[in-house]
Specification:
The protein contains 17 helices and no strands. The chain has 321 residues and is mainly alpha-helical. Helix 6 (94-114) runs parallel beside helix 13 (235-264). The chain is globular, with a radius of gyration of 24 Å. The protein starts with a helix and ends with a helix.
Length: 321
C-alpha cells in the first residue's frame, strides 16, 4: 500500500514531535495498533454516571431530586471552567472575555428555564416525606455556586448589604466573616448558625478565601474596569455582564424561591427548609439586593432590583394550588 503525501507529511510531523520529546514513535504506533476503538459510553463514563443516584428512601420522586441537583452541579462546573479560562488567560482580549461570559449566560439560562422540573416535577406529598431523610444537607451547601460568585465580582459585593460600607477597606478574612450567605443559614428560633452552615464553612472556607485572593484583580468586575480604563469598547461585554448579574442574583434565586413556596409554604405556618434556614428572607432577590456590577445599572434599576417578580410568583403558585 502506498502512502499518500498527506499521510507521509503527518508521519513526518509525528516523528519530529516524538523525537523532540526523546520518545520512540514506533512504540506509540504499536500502542495505537493494539488499542480498542473508543465508544461513547466509555468516553463519558456513562455507566458510572448512571450509577451515582443513591436515594435515601424508597419514595420515587427522590431520584428526580438527586438527578436534577447533579445536573445543576455539572452546569456550575461548566461555568467555573469558563471563569478559569478568563482569569488565567495569558493575553486576555475583550472578545475572548465577552464570548466566555456569553457561554456562562447560556448555562444559567438552561438552569433557570429547567428549574420547572423542581417546581412542578415532583409530587408535593412525596417531597415532604423524603426531604426529612436529607437533614441537614441543603442546596445551600453548593460550593461551586459560591465560587462562581467570587469569580464574578469584587468580594465586597458579596458582603451582607448592611456591612458593605463599614467593611469596604477591611481584609478579605474580615469581609468573609460577614459574607451574605452566612446570614441566610441561621436557626429561626435562636439566630445561631445552623449545622448546615457549620458543615459548609468547615469544608469550603479555606478554598473560598484562597479563590477570593486569587481573583482580587482577575474577577469579572475588576477585568471589565481594566478594559474600560484602557479605552476599549466595552458595550458588548457590559451587556453580557448585566445578563449574568440578573441570572445569578435574580433569576436563579427566584427559581429556588418558587420551588420553596411550592413545597414548603403552608398556611398559616411555613415549613422550615432542610437546613433550618430562614429561606423566606434569604431567597427573594428584593431583600438581598446582591448586585455584581452596580456601575452597569441606574439608581432606579437598583432600587427596583428583584421587585415584582416575587409577588407575581406567589400569586401564580397559590392559584395553582
Amino acid at each position: 500500500m502506498d502512502f499518500t503525501p498527506e499521510i507521509k507529511d503527518k508521519l513526518n510531523q509525528l516523528q519530529e514531535k516524538y523525537t523532540a520529546m526523546g520518545q520512540d514513535m514506533a512504540s506509540y504506533l504499536d500502542g495505537l495498533l493494539y488499542a480498542n476503538f473508543l465508544t461513547y459510553w466509555d468516553y463519558i463514563h456513562l455507566d458510572t454516571l448512571l450509577s451515582l443516584q443513591s436515594p435515601k428512601t424508597p419514595i420515587p420522586d427522590e431520584e428526580i431530586f438527586i438527578m436534577y441537583h447533579q445536573i445543576t452541579e455539572l452546569y456550575f462546573k461548566l461555568c467555573l471552567h469558563e471563569c478559569k479560562q478568563i482569569a488565567e488567560h495569558e493575553n486576555l482580549t475583550i472578545d475572548f472575555f465577552t464570548a466566555r461570559v456569553k457561554r456562562i449566560n447560556a448555562y444559567f439560562n438552561a438552569l433557570t428555564t429547567s428549574f420547572e422540573v423542581m417546581v412542578d416535577g415532583m409530587e408535593k406529598e412525596q417531597f415532604l416525606k423524603f426531604r426529612m431523610s436529607l437533614l441537614p444537607a441543603s442546596g445551600f451547601q453548593s460550593g461551586q455556586y459560591r465560587m462562581i460568585e467570587i469569580c464574578a465580582t469584587d468580594f465586597i459585593r458579596l458582603v451582607d448589604k448592611t456591612k458593605r460600607v463599614e467593611l469596604s477597606n477591611a481584609t478579605l478574612e474580615e469581609q468573609f466573616e460577614n459574607i451574605y450567605w452566612k446570614f441566610g443559614a441561621t436557626e429561626l428560633s435562636s439566630g445561631k448558625q445552623t449545622l448546615t452552615l457549620k458543615q459548609f464553612i468547615k469544608k469550603y472556607s479555606s478554598q473560598f478565601l484562597q479563590l477570593a485572593k486569587d481573583r482580587t484583580t482577575t474577577n469579572f468586575s475588576a477585568l471589565y474596569q481594566q478594559f474600560q480604563a484602557n479605552g476599549y469598547d466595552v458595550t458588548s461585554l457590559a451587556e453580557e455582564l448585566r445578563k449574568l448579574d440578573l441570572y445569578v442574583n435574580v433569576e436563579w434565586p427566584l427559581a429556588h424561591y418558587k420551588s420553596a413556596v411550592r413545597y414548603l409554604e403552608k398556611d398559616p405556618i411555613d415549613v422550615a427548609a432542610t437546613g433550618g434556614t430562614n429561606w423566606q428572607k434569604y431567597l427573594p432577590p428584593r431583600f438581598q439586593k446582591r448586585i455584581f456590577y452596580p456601575f452597569l445599572w441606574t439608581n432606579g434599576q437598583m432600587e427596583e432590583w428583584g421587585k415584582g417578580w416575587v409577588l407575581s410568583v406567589l400569586k401564580t403558585l397559590k392559584n395553582k394550588d
